[in-house]
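thought: user wants a sequence for this fold. calling inverse folding tool.
action: design(structure=
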């Protein structure tokens, strides 16, 4: 056995590994002996994460050039797109949805619940309505260079020229809060909430150069809304959402020019050309709501170019829940 070991072979003829000092030096280093530290930074070879400084420079240079090219393509694409846009006239309006029908106050989950004798229960609503109506104060509409009188009766569209900078800033039609009667907030700062007869202020959202067209015939609107149709007005009609609430809502009163949206306030020319524009408003007052009952009410506007979308609860319509508590 000693002879075999000395010769470097085992009795079965297999080679015997000599445990020499040289072989020990060639053995892999113990990974636990600072291996991860050397991988992060090897002071002997000057390697960082297994790569030399020259390698990192090449990698960094590649990504700087790569992302620089991507950024240049992105910026160039945006600039090319901006060249196709007009500062005053929307370039693409063929797929713009009809205007939304919204109201003040803006309601959380579309619900109004209050007690006429509890100020804190309706104060958030009336405060929001006063803030909204403040821009319609007569004192804010005295400048004849910004506003003009468009009449107190419904009239045809007010054509103020083209959508370009050469025509200059457009005047806006005045809209007096007094047209909203008891819902104006001038005499009753609580907008009817303190008497259990709450008001809502309704408006059509702005769309540049949009001209809403009144219904072509009574056949296109529900029978109960037909009495509200008149020339030069986009009619608004509210009714019960659920059949069981039909006899619980009571009378709804409408206030405004023509009790709808008069055409002389259209079209809207955009913020740059029409910065002082005031939308026409319609006020609703619910005069005889059944107490302690959650009532669901739906309001719609009717026009040839106004339709509705079940996925958008505010496209041409909205519905709210109102509950007047008695205890």
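)
observation: tool returned 327 residues.
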């Amino acid at each position: 056995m000693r002879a075999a070991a000395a010769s470097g072979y085992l009795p079965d003829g297999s080679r015997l590994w000599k445990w020499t000092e040289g072989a020990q030096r060639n053995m892999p280093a113990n990974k636990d002996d600072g291996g991860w530290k050397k991988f992060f930074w090897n002071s002997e070879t000057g390697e960082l994460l297994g790569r030399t400084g020259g390698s990192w420079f090449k990698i960094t240079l590649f990504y700087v050039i790569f992302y620089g090219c991507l950024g240049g393509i992105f910026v160039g694409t945006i600039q090319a797109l901006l060249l196709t846009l007009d500062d005053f006239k929307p370039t693409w309006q063929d797929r713009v949805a009809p205007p939304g029908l919204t109201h003040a106050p803006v309601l959380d989950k579309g619900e109004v619940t209050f007690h006429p004798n509890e100020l804190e229960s309706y104060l958030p609503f009336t405060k929001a309505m006063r803030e909204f109506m403040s821009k319609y104060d007569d004192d804010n509409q005295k400048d004849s260079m910004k506003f003009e009188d468009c009449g107190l009766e419904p009239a045809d569209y007010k054509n103020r020229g083209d959508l370009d900078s050469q025509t200059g800033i457009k005047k806006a039609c005045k809209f007096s809060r007094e047209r909203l009667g008891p819902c104006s907030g001038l005499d009753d700062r609580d907008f009817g909430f303190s008497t259990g007869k709450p008001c809502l202020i309704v408006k059509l959202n702005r769309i540049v150069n949009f001209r809403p067209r009144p219904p072509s015939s009574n056949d296109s609107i529900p029978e109960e809304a037909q009495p509200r149709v008149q020339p030069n007005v986009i009619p608004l009609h509210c009714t019960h959402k659920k059949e069981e609430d039909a006899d619980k809502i009571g009378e709804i009163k409408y206030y405004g020019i023509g009790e709808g949206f008069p055409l002389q306030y259209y079209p809207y020319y955009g913020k740059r050309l029409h910065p002082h524009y005031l939308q026409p408003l319609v006020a609703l007052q619910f005069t005889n709501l059944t107490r302690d009952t959650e009532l669901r009410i739906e309001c719609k506007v009717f026009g040839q170019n106004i339709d509705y979308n079940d996925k958008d609860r505010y496209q041409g319509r909205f519905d709210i829940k109102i509950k007047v508590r008695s205890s």
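thought: summarizing for user.
answer: Here is the designed sequence. The chain has two domains: 1-84, 101-324.
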